[in-house]
Amino acid sequence: MATVQKKTTRTTKKVTETKGQVQSQSTVTKSSQVSSQKTLTITKKGQFFSDSFFEDTRQDFQDAIKDVLTKCGDKSSTGDDITTYRSLRTRELKDENQAIKSTDDELYHKIVVDVNDFINGGEVSVKTVEEREVVVEGRVERKQGNTRSSKSFKRSFILPEDIEVEALTAVVSSDGVLIIKAPKKPSSATQSQISVKVQKQVQSSVTKETTGQAVDKTVSVKTENVQHTTKASQDNVVSQKVTQQVKTVRESTSTSDTASRPLTIVKKGLFFDDSFFEDSRQPFQTAIKQVLEKSNVTSTQVDDITNYRNLRQRDLKEENQAVTVSEDQQTHKIIVDVQDFINGGEVTVKTVDEREVVIQGHIEKQEGNTRSSKSFCKRFVLPEDIEVESVTSVVSSDGVLTITAPRKPSAVPVTDATKAVSIEKTETKKQIQTTVTTTEEQDVKEPQVIIQQVPQVTQDVTSQKDTEQEKTVTTVTKQVKTVTDTTTSDTASRPLPIVKKGSFFDDSFFEDSRELFQTAVRQVLEKSNVTSTQVDDITNYRNLRQRDLKEENQAVTVNEDQKTHKIIVDVQDFLNGGEVTVKTVDEREVVIEGHIEKQEGNTKSSKRFCKRFVLPEDIEVESVTSVVSSDGVLTITAPRKPSTKQIEGNIETTQTKKVVKTTTITTIEGEEDSEPAPVKPKEVVKKPDEHTVTQKVDKETVSTVSQLDKTVTDSTTTGTVTKVVTIIKKGSFFEDSFFEDSRQLFQTAVRKVLEKFNETSSQTDDITTYRKLRQRDLREENQAVTVDENQTTQKMIVDVQDFVNGGEVTVRTVNEREVIIEGHIEKQEGNTKSSKRFCKRFVLSEDIDVESLTCVVSSDGVLTITALRKSGTKQIEGTTETTQNKKVVKTTITTTEGQDVSEPAPVRPKEVVKKSDENIVSQKTDQEKSVSTVTQQVKTVTDSTTTGVVTRILTIIRKGLFFTDSFFEETRKLFQTAVKQVLVKFHETSTQTDEITTYRSLRQRNLSEETQATTVHEDQQNHKIILDVQDFANGGEVTVKIVNEKEVVVEGHIVKQEATKRFCRKFVLPEGADAKSVSPVMSADGVLTIITKKKITITTTKKETSEKEVSVEKKTSKTVDRSTFNKVLTITVKGAFFSDTIFQDIRQEFDSSIKTVVEKFKIKTTSSEQFTAYRNFRKSNPKNENQAFAVKDTEDVWKAVIDVCDFVGGVKVQIIGGSEIKVEGRGNRQEGVSVVSFSFMRGFILPDDADLEAVSAVMSSEGILTIIAPKIK
């Protein structure tokens, strides 16, 4: 038991342990000592006596309370200890009656502190001092009438020496109990160094028979060459021969031998309060929504949970029981609602045959003289990679059962040559012989052969080289039960889990499968001679299946492309009350089976189906997935194996008239050797025109490349290029799988808004609380916004729900560097009309492909903008100096025509670049040498007061808010530390506001350099300067410049109330900093971050190579088989049709087609309003007859234009047979309570001289599609 100490003086303690003796030296110093302090983040959890996180500390806290009550003599018989203690603290808040406890166990050192009186309106902090001491401080101010009182406490705890200080955590419950946990270091038992070299050879022979008799299985294990180096090194070679008797049981008798194991159900706190269930809440809520949708239960008066509970009270049956299954890389999770069976009833969970989980519930209820009984039984098949022994079952206090099954650790990939595993299989009739050889201490797992309870044999062995070794044989016999299916002997089948998604025609996951399924439906209707003009094809098909459910009229289709093999089957009639299974057989066949039983009066009927599909040979069977929509369309996707293997290292590819060479890099003296990554043969092979470029640098020649640097100042903003982005509409944000990756980010943004505005509610969830906040006070400050970046994309998520219904939201890009989102809405409340607007700006990263930017809004108003990063080769910038002869680099680069040439990855030219302002690129062509020089333009300013001073002004890049934009994530803590230092220096403290607000108030009163938060940080890669310039950014001017490539100067200037304020900060760059890489970035709220990369010096000399000429070979003609040419065109979105120049030469034809429609249908309008009148007419009556389209054919190009505004998001353009363009579209329209679907299809004949490879499709922002087919000259 550790002691609790309260410090009243500044004491420095030094504790030294040597061979069991402890020396303690205590000195009181007058001057403040410099100590290493670290502030711990305090994590918030649920109620102390409800949240299971605090389970192991509750007794400690209760003991501490009893100690306080005993000490103060305040024991009450009327209330419990907790209530008595709280009353005592309310009457008199002092250190002596604060509950504190410090305990130890084998794993942790725990500290429990009651801080209930300091968390609401006060402040609590935890920090470590010198890695040996934990200090807990609290402060609160209270106002009673005209009197203001302040209370504070400070507790200090000395940590034991065996503590992992870095892993120390601080967690506070919602009712104010602070728990500090310090993990202990692993016991440092003295271990002798053992060098082990093991070579194992495992050989197993298995004989399979189908007679049902016992079969002997022999496995021999040989171990050789074992070397152990210890104080007494000894050798021992053990050869184990294990004979396993395998018992085969026929399927007909397997039920009698079923092995079941009951699971203990652990009880926890409330499902939505206890943090244990945090990861399960979202899947459970989704399951509830599915039940409500299925039962057609909706209500705006109460939330989904209440609706669901009311439904279960009215009608308790399995069909409306919330059940869901989710899985990730670590676990397989089953969540079932059992609330109606835990109070007065019984719930059991068991595993059967280590492959199945069975959940059963039973309850009896007495209502008057009537006794009713309800029960349920749910069965779930576990995946094969589950650790059945580790399956756990936990139920919340409000009856949500969560079963968690951890997955087995995946096998370590074999990469080393010494770990290679070779497997040979020879099959003769029904005999299989398997030989597995492995080396170097790696276990080999033989399928379906389990060896257990092998006794450990320890013998003294003396290691001798090149000597014979003694061998000991151990024999173990074990019975293994094998079930043999009499109908499918020797067949290896694997069940596939079926994942559930949304509606087939609503969920974007099925977007690529809809057309295929509709075609299959049409084929069934044609085959059955079913036609109707009253309803659509899908309704006709469903009516047919209701009348006559048989395999002949089941919609089934198979489709394949270069990447996938897809199977689509309608299983709607077997989902509700029936069973559908999918499995792979022998890794070559997919089998889909369905079964359902129906009761009609006294008659019981049973329906089944079985579909078998043979997979192509190039399918990745392990990656086959099975997904079913909520309305019963099953989609099985089987990805194909890559056609060509990617080979790293040196590759030479020889083709006719094509040369492909890779990059060879040789480094000497301290350089790391790494495989050159950049040459990808997959990209080289795809291009028909290739040329080889050879770059050489002699000992006397230095070749440098620099990028033309564009310097932009705030005053020059002419030439702005704006492009409107089309917003595509999808389903509900929390239901449509398109938004799956964005949900967590949006929920985090919502929580931040609620925390910022102190909005909490135990009655509703975060989203509902947020929506109510927005209804009360619609402004930009409480709008949920977040930005996320990864290696492939930059994503912006903005809540626009309040502007989509009856308002307007637009998204546009400016100069291909900035995204602007604007919203506007007008609301009428009685006689008052109010208008609300917002505008959000986001700066895109430099490596973003602006053309790939997509904008999607959910039906409930969450806007997601996704921008892909450029996937091309890196741009070569800067220079590579060659000054030493000890390092040799030989580079040969092969590229296809039109591609950039980039240096291989290990040389890292992008980091080395910025060392020079000039670059010479030398290329040798046939019997000619040409030298081209590119000089970088840099803005230089000469200081008139200092001769010889070269100044370079830097452009400041603007980002989002400092505490929101992820760009500043690594610098936030540094800035907060700088702010604290300013506040401490000026003795500024406040318990009413946070430190940032207190700092801003100080700056408003005293705008001087002394109160300006500034800090400098340095790591191995970067040198960072963080500076607060908020007071100069708005209405003033901030500049950053480099002086003599050694100094960073930051200046600010602003005029306020006829007074001028200035500041100037100078920072000397360290010797290792690359002045060319200095990058200043300013947050929207005025925190400036200046990042300077450290130099990575690569001094190389390229050896002279034999002069090779650059040969460029081009194909002068393209040979295309037009009759077999089929291609789906990608639709590129451009600007407005009547302003973007790309549509300039087709506008007249489109105007004429509009006029034709207006005249044909006698639409009343003026000549200037024809387009608007046409669009309004189409909204109420979208038919092929009134769709505007036109064709323009010239000597150089063929163009077709067609209005697809009503079908945006569902338009498909494809070339068929090299002669026809087919355009299809599908849209939905709400009419009352029903949704009406409509579609169109148009065909255009291409001219014979059209260049099929160059055909493109472009859509304007308002939905006008233009197809462009250049002609072969």
Write the layout of secondary structure elements.
Blueprint lengths: L10 E8 L2 E8 L8 E4 L1 E3 L13 H15 L8 H11 L8 E5 L3 E7 L1 H4 L3 E7 L3 E12 L2 E12 L10 E4 L4 E7 L15 E9 L7 E10 L12 E14 L9 E4 L1 E3 L13 H14 L9 H11 L8 E5 L3 E7 L1 H4 L3 E7 L3 E12 L2 E12 L10 E4 L4 E7 L15 E7 L2 E9 L31 E14 L8 E4 L1 E3 L13 H14 L9 H11 L8 E5 L3 E7 L1 H4 L3 E7 L3 E12 L2 E12 L10 E4 L4 E7 L13 E3 L2 E3 L3 E2 L15 H6 L3 E4 L28 E4 L1 E3 L13 H14 L9 H11 L8 E5 L3 E7 L1 H4 L3 E7 L3 E12 L2 E12 L10 E4 L4 E7 L20 E2 L2 E4 L12 H4 L5 E8 L2 E8 L4 E3 L7 E5 L2 E2 L13 H14 L9 H11 L8 E5 L3 E7 L1 H4 L3 E7 L3 E10 L2 E10 L10 E4 L4 E7 L18 E2 ...
Parallel strand pairs: 4-10, 14-26, 16-22, 28-34, 41-47, 55-61, 65-71
Antiparallel strand pairs: 1-2, 3-7, 5-6, 6-11, 7-8, 8-9, 10-11, 12-13, 12-25, 13-14, 15-19, 17-18, 18-23, 19-20, 20-21, 22-23, 24-25, 27-31, 29-30, 30-35, 31-32, 32-33, 34-35, 36-37, 38-49, 39-50, 39-63, 40-44, 42-43, 43-48, 44-45, 45-46, 47-48, 51-52, 53-54, 54-58, 56-57, 57-62, 58-59, 59-60, ...
Summarize the structure.
With 1273 residues, the protein is mainly beta. It is built from 19 helices and 72 strands.
Question: Describe it for me?
Answer:
This protein has 1273 residues and is mostly beta strands. It is built from 19 helices and 72 strands. The strands form 18 sheets. Strands 24-25-12-13-14-26 form a six-stranded mixed beta sheet, with no helix packed on it. It has a five-stranded mixed beta sheet with strand order 4-10-11-6-5, covered by helices on one side. A five-stranded mixed beta sheet has the order 16-22-23-18-17, with helices on one face. The chain starts with 10 loop residues before the first strand and ends with a strand. The model is unreliable at 1-34, 188-257, 411-490, 644-718, 873-947 and 1098-1118 (pLDDT under 50). Residues 91-199, 314-426, 547-654, 776-885, 1005-1113, 1180-1273 form the SHSP domain. Pfam families: HSP20. GO terms for molecular function: unfolded protein binding.
